[in-house]
Amino acid sequence: MKCFVCWSCQKSDATVGIGGCIPFVLTKDEPTEMHVSFYANGTRYDYDVKFNGKHIFERSLVLLPQQIKISFYERSFVGENVQADIKFGASLKTASQDAGEHPRKHFE
């Protein structure tokens, strides 16, 4: 799970399989789905991922400050050799909008 969370924002090569992330053996014919909730700086985050040995089909990160669900991003598999469809939450500020504060600082 750590590999998905820590490196999910990096650009990936659509032609390369997933390294170090092994799908659940008992459902090897179906994609593995995982969910994890964690807290950083007092805010709850929910991370979901769906993958097999070759592709990450879906992943999303949601934050829940004061129990209000805010989408940080959603990333969906489009097809072989095609860049994933990535959507960022509309209510989030970019680093340039927030006087130099980078969103990644919350995970350091």
Provide keyphrases for this structure.
108 residues; mainly beta; 5-stranded antiparallel sheet; disordered C terminus
Question: How is this structure best described in words?
Answer:
A hairpin with a 2-residue loop joins strand 1 (32-40) and strand 2. This protein has a 5-stranded antiparallel sheet, with no helix packed on it. The radius of gyration is 15 Å and the shape is flat. By secondary structure, it is mainly beta. The two termini are 17 Å apart. It is 6% helix and 35% strand. Residues 102-108 have low confidence and may be disordered.
Helix content: under 10%
The proportion of strand residues reads: 35-45%
Going by helix content, strand content and strand pairing, the class is mainly beta
What's the helix-strand series?
HEEEEE
In short:
With 108 residues, the chain is mainly beta.
Topology readout:
Blueprint (H helix, E strand, L loop, with lengths): L1 H6 L24 E9 L2 E9 L4 E9 L5 E7 L8 E4 L20
Antiparallel strand pairs: 1-2, 2-3, 3-4, 4-5
